[in-house]
Amino acid sequence: MKLRTVLFSLAAIGFCASASAQAPIVIKFSHVVAADTPKGKASEYFKKRAEELTKGKVKVEVYANSALYKDKEELEALQLGAVQMLAPSLAKFGPLGVKEFEVFDLPYIFDDYSELHRITQGPVGASILKKLEPKGIVGLAYWDNGFKSFSANTPIRTPADLKGKKLRIQSSKVLEEEIRSVGGLPQVMAFSEVYQALQTGVVDGTENPHSNTFTQKMHEVQKHLTVTDHGYLGYAVIANKKFWDGLPADVRGQLEQAMKDSTAYANKIAQEENDKSLEGIKKSGKTQVYVPTKEEKLAFKKAMLPVHQKMEGRIGKDLIQSIYKETGFDPAKL
Ligand code: LMR
Known about the structure:
By secondary structure, this protein is α/β, with parallel strands linked by helices. 47% of the residues lie in helices and 17% in strands. It has one domain (25-327): Bacterial extracellular solute-binding protein, family 7 (D-Maltodextrin-Binding Protein, domain 2, 3-Layer(aba) Sandwich). The strands form two sheets. It has a six-stranded mixed sheet with strand order 7-6-8-5-9-11. Strands 2-1-3-10-4 form a five-stranded mixed sheet, sandwiched between helices. Helix 2 (38-53) packs antiparallel against helix 10 (249-284). The longest helix is centred in the C-terminal third of the chain and has 36 residues, at 249-284. It starts with a helix and ends in a 7-residue tail after the last helix. The structure holds (2S)-2-hydroxybutanedioic acid. Pfam families: DctP.
């Protein structure tokens, strides 16, 4: 009888020990866009790969659409350790004090994804991610979204058509200057508030890649959209550094592999998701989509180019030049 009690107790202790050994490491991954976007799909892909590769040792909980936190709050939550991973857009790191990310916001600095990848997949991009470490953040990868279009309730053919318009932007000083360069009035606002602000006329228009415009139904409250491709919007996938560094080495390696796989996936689907969204916007019949001619596009470029020089003091002239060198951008050749 006594022996049975002892055996039972030992079994109970063993059960508790193995249960706690098997309790998964939970990663809360928060973001602000719809699930059906390049970032939304890539974060779900990361969840799948991370759980597969770690054989369930890690459980990833993805919270889309600002369900957990809005733009500014999510960065605070990451630093406090309330969430472990995020993928904020590159335009949202300025308020954190890492202004170099705003180099990606310079109008027309990248002509296409291949130019962009020379930075995001090369040493310049890696050196920018490194700047997050003193903030308690580790930069894991860049995920693509796409090139932005302007939208409003009136046609946009020339930069002058944006004059005096209140245009919602992300929290980036470069974007503020971009809007001012065409005579617009920049309004910084969290992504989750944009639809309502457009609907109620708090702002007149905005800029975003088509995947964001379409999945947030912004096109339903904007009569005109012009495919200006005037700037890039993409993401840095980041983690709380203390959490990341504290992971068992094998698990961290598996998560790094999962991140590699999901980055390849994100960058593969980004353009097709944006193309599909543009088709969706056209088909909705709610927004008139205009594709500017080469000359019309050049007028936007010329109006916005002074932003590069104006922002040298904030972002760093050397950084801007190093991007020009990688991509072959030559402001004198416009
Ligand atoms: C925005 O605020 O417009 C974007 O940064 C949203 C996003 O994460 O794509």
